[in-house]
Design goal:
- The complex is a heterodimer of chains A (about 100) and B (about 120).
- Chain A is mostly beta strands.
- Helices cover about 0% and strands about 45% of the residues of chain A.
- In chain A, the strands form 2 sheets. In chain A, strands 2, 4, 5, 6, 9, 10 and 11 form a 7-stranded mixed sheet that branches. A 4-stranded antiparallel sheet of chain A has the order 1-3-8-7, with no helix packed on it.
- Chain B is mainly beta.
- Helix content of chain B is about 0%, strand content about 55%.
- In chain B, a hairpin with a 6-residue loop joins strand 5 and strand 6.
- Chain B starts with a strand and ends with a strand.
- The chains are: A mainly beta (about 100), B mainly beta (about 120).
- Chains A and B meet through strand 4, strand 5 and strand 10 of A and strand 5 and strand 10 of B.
Chain lengths: ~100, ~120
Amino acid sequence: DIQMTQSPSSVSASVGDRVTITCRASQDISSWLAWYQQKPGKAPKVLIYAASNLQSGVPSRFSGSGSGTDFTLTISRLEPEDFATYYCQQGNSFPYTFGQGTKLE
Amino acid sequence: QVQLVESGGGVVQPGRSLRLSCAASGITFSNNGMHWVRQAPGKGLEWVAVIWHDGSNKYYADSVKGRFTISRDNAKDTLYLQMNSLRTEDTAVYYCARVMGSYFDLWGRGTLVTVSS
């Protein structure tokens, strides 16, 4: 199975800050990576797919980069609604796997 | 209205069975593969199972293989998860999700399954 490791596990930031979250895959997954945002009691919401493609309707302050084994999610200027937990997910092979999550607080 | 709505969750004793349903509306259900993803209380996301758009292929996480069965009825726009021999570690919110390529673009609100004696 492909292991996905996110860092950090939590990050403290303020409105207006730039935040970067990283995700490392245990083997090459090309660009088969997505990022999700989850708020308490809600289902996850996709932000980025194929490593760097912004999902329709997602604000442009979110961006993704990387390929192979190393990926990043960047929020350029934090808004109050961005405080949530973020997950990466590999879609290269089954079983699909998620990172352990990064709580942005 | 585009949505997925799960149902069938509840409290069940260890070793018993439960069947979850996921009703789709506002989408062409038969066009896409469908997945189940679960989240134990206070924990991260865990992929559970996938079924191809036509039901021709299915894959399972090792943690549920041999106990859970994913199926679908495209005539009823509904996805199912039959869960047998339930364990306390199966306690989680279960989400159904539509796959677009290799990522999940549409999620239900989830249904809580609690396995407890």
